[in-house]
Write a structure and sequence with these properties.
alpha/beta; D-Maltodextrin-Binding Protein, domain 2; 2 domains; five-stranded mixed beta sheet; two-stranded antiparallel sheet; 25% helix; elongated
């Protein structure tokens, strides 16, 4: 199986670790009651990724778990971001998927606390003595970009 950690023909290398960020548009948040504690998000419209089986609970680093009822489901990250930008509700996505929107002010992170679900992001590639130049350049680019 390609991508198996025990496969001698496949190499795996960590690119970076990420975590989930809970965020929404400032316009949506301005229409809601103030969020004073983590539990308050259970009253907000939660836009859930359809592929997340455990999506009804959000676990934070401080040990807090909040149960949320999905407002609706989407199966595409960019659609989720667009829904949040339009003010439909809150989303929970990987930090790297929403960072630029948070930095620009289009989305706002709801908490300083990070979610507990740290996810490693790996690159898998064939373990060959002579790598194709285009594959080698791509790997070098990814490793350099992520300081690996």
């Amino acid at each position: 199986m390609w991508g198996n950690d025990n496969d001698a023909q496949t190499k795996r290398r960590l690119l970076f670790n990420t975590h989930y960020t809970v965020c929404a548009s400032p316009a949506y948040l301005n229409k809601q009651k103030p969020i004073n504690k983590i539990d308050d998000i259970s009253a907000l419209n939660y836009i859930q990724h359809a592929g997340r089986l455990d999506g009804r609970q959000i676990k934070f680093d401080n040990g807090k778990v909040v149960f949320v009822e999905p407002y609706y489901f989407l199966n595409d990250v960019s659609a989720m971001v667009q829904a949040a930008l339009q003010g439909d509700g809150i989303i929970m996505l990987h930090d790297y998927e929403v960072r630029a929107y948070i930095e620009s002010g289009e989305l706002q992170s709801l908490f300083d606390e990070k979610t507990k679900e740290i996810q490693p992001v790996y690159v898998y590639y064939q373990n060959k003595k002579y790598q194709q130049p285009k594959v080698r350049r791509f790997l070098d680019f990814m490793f350099e970009k992520n300081n690996v």
